[in-house]
Amino acid sequence: MQHGPLKLKAQLYCGEEIAMGPGKADLLDAIDREGSISAAARAMGMSYRRGWMLVDSMNRCWTEKLVETAAGRSGAQLTPCGKAVLTHYRALQRAMAELTGHADYAALAHLLRDHPAIKE
């Protein structure tokens, strides 16, 4: 993860809802790793309800569900569409991180103070 004055955050919108952003991508990673929405939410320090609401939002925003839950059983997994969306989103994040090598970024960073000036 890059530290410094440039912080880019990719958010893809579906109408007024955020269909994918850094937090939702992290939740998908956690679901893939943990095998359930509740365990993923717990691992991320959020409530099950919040995790479920984020999954519901993602599932409604894409042409196919990103997360599939087993009816009558605990557990969840990413669908092939969910894996594809996550893969492409992470690639977009990596491409955005490479912008720190761009000439315009270097010019802006050169003109940027380390800290705001004291008010006069």
UniProtKB/TrEMBL annotation:
Coiled coil: none
InterPro entries: LysR_HTH_N, Molybdate_resp_trans_reg, WH-like_DNA-bd_sf, WH_DNA-bd_sf
Domain HTH lysR-type: 27-82
Gene3D superfamilies per UniProt: Winged helix-like DNA-binding domain superfamily/Winged helix DNA-binding domain
Bilayer-spanning residue ranges: none
SUPFAM superfamilies, per the entry: Winged helix' DNA-binding domain (SSF46785)
Gene Ontology MF: a single term: DNA-binding transcription factor activity
UniProt-listed PANTHER family: DNA-BINDING TRANSCRIPTIONAL DUAL REGULATOR MODE (PTHR30432:SF1), TRANSCRIPTIONAL REGULATOR MODE (PTHR30432)
Protein name: Molybdate transport system regulatory protein
Organism of this sequence: Stakelama sediminis
Organism lineage: Bacteria, Pseudomonadati, Pseudomonadota, Alphaproteobacteria, Sphingomonadales
